[in-house]
Amino acid sequence: MGAHRTGRVASLAAIALIMTSCAAGGQDARVGAAGPVTGEGRSTTAATALAPLLVTAREPAVPFKGSDGTFVVSYELTLFNATPLTLRPTTVEVLTPSGTVIDSLDEGEIAAALALPSRRTGVQELTEAQTATLYLSPEFAGRSDVPARLDNRVTVTAPGLPPEGVTTVAAPVSVSDATVPVLGPPLEPGTGYIAADSCCDSIRHRRAQLPIDNRLWLAQRFAVDWEQLDDRGRTVTGDDPSVPGDYTIFGKRVVAAAGGTVIHVVDGLAEQAPGALPASITLPEADGNSVIIDIGSGLYALYAHMQPGSIAVSVGQRVARGDLIGLVGNTGNSSAPHLHFHVMDGPSPLTSEGVPYVIDSFETTGQITSTAAFDQFENTTQPLPMQATPSDGTHRDELPLDLVIVTFP
Ligand SMILES: [Zn+2]
Fold this sequence. Notes:
- The chain is mainly β.
- 7% of the residues lie in helices and 32% in strands.
- The chain has two domains: 12-20 and 38-174, Immunoglobulin-like (Sandwich); 182-408, Glucose Permease (Domain IIA) (Distorted Sandwich), CATH 2.70.70.10.
């Protein structure tokens, strides 16, 4: 490749020569010659070609059962363009250790799954030194179908690269055999609860990586923003969407999804006006009036955005499952009354990793048709568009997936 090309086409061989121009002269000719695909996990001593994309995995990947009945393994790959070329990812494959392709993403699917730190989606190319995160969630019919590790291959093209592109084989992602925590509902019994921005492709939660203390954190990976429909399918029961108290879920009781010890309480922050996110808010105030409970096994549960003065627990207090925590409000970084709930592996909602969990018993009665539809009608007095799903009915030990409509017992 490369030698016969002319003009300004930047072949990988030419790039390799530029990038090695300070190396011993005799080395240059070999670098960039056609050779085996190399990758972080599989470099061979015979490697003689550049693999222009570096791929690293965020671990661990913990399987859990979603409310569609499948077992999901959610993890992220970090893609780094280590060349001056503009790279276009064309194929992403997830494989078992024996080489069976479980999941294969084409260019359109990659663009939807790839995001920059702004969470902007639709990324189709990576320019020199650009880094992006690929959010993957392969599904398996049964827990025993989930292998102990997952391999990942990413193929990129660029002008001057071979037409078939160059493939990077990432280091394997180990799949944890940890059992996920089994929780109760975080809200009082009721119907019409919406699991908004839940797993696995929610832009607002899943892609909310934060750079703090010299690394990226994704505490909200499996967060849910719980809202609620009234018996006419509306999130706004009253007649004024700018009034928190007119929302169906406002004032509903937030209850402990698991027993534990209260380690953090914020109270006294005023309600925000629904309809838009507050113009200026500090990071510590983002969760509004909130409670963090140490639920054991190194895990912590966050309950956020509750009403001022409604917090019913104090730091150091032991709570049992089902105990009152507070009342649903619209405080902090919130544009509509809701309960933000997630489980994380540390006490800080900023510097921890979000971990999956399941709820031991709930029903589903359909789902909102799309996030776009949800966003369109969330702050209106109109009914939200709903549809039935094949998995509607009783659920045991599953995580309510994005936009399902839930009844808590
Ligand atoms: Zn949230």
